[in-house]
């Protein structure tokens, strides 16, 4: 007996998986078509039917399979309402990879815990001068000012160790980080991004952006994420 024929069922199984991948790819490519209904196949059921159509381990002729070689030409594909759109799927998959990692969030209120530095970045625009960072406590008092006079355009890393201008340790709590710069003779506030860990994600309905549940910051939209590390 030919050993390849003996284990021909493995090739059939691979062909079935290829066929199912083609069906799912068609679902995705037609995801934005309102009249399209997604299709699928029960892999185990189809494979079992193929196996039953064979005569034990001795059924080796390809004619024992359906004509298309996949064993599914006479198998009715089940139809179901298309549950999602391709952009939504891509965003959900992308967001799920963020769990357990640090992200820089577009926000200026940061949680400081004693013994842990607050880290982040600021976006320095073109032709910016007199760049500085103010750190304010919950009462709105400026406890520390960091001046960065000569900086280039781009991202500038920031880190606060919890000390004020007088080198006094500050208590744990929420602090506001306000970055400013002078551009074309006017003082403007520039974007601040603070770093935090992603605990989980929330998949929203109706095409809304995926929400990241970020440690110390709560729910943050994917649109407010600058970088991931």
Automatic annotation (TrEMBL):
One Gene Ontology term from the biological process aspect of the record: bacterial-type flagellum-dependent swarming motility
GO cellular component, one term: bacterial-type flagellum basal body, rod
Domain FlgD/Vpr Ig-like, chain residue ranges per copy: 114-182
Compartments in which it is found: Bacterial flagellum basal body
Chain ranges of the FlgD Tudor-like domain: 92-226
Domain called Flagellar basal body rod protein N-terminal: residue spans: 8-37
Pfam families membership: Flg_bb_rod (PF00460), FlgD_ig (PF13860), FLgD_tudor (PF13861)
Domain of life: Bacteria
UniProt entry keywords in alphabetical sequence: Bacterial flagellum, Cell projection, Cilium, Flagellum
PANTHER family according to UniProt: FLAGELLAR BASAL BODY ROD PROTEIN FLGB (PTHR30435:SF12), FLAGELLAR PROTEIN (PTHR30435)
Family listed: Belongs to the flagella basal body rod proteins family.
Main function: Structural component of flagellum, the bacterial motility apparatus. Part of the rod structure of flagellar basal body.
Name assigned to this protein: Flagellar basal body rod protein FlgB
Gene designation per UniProt: flgB_2
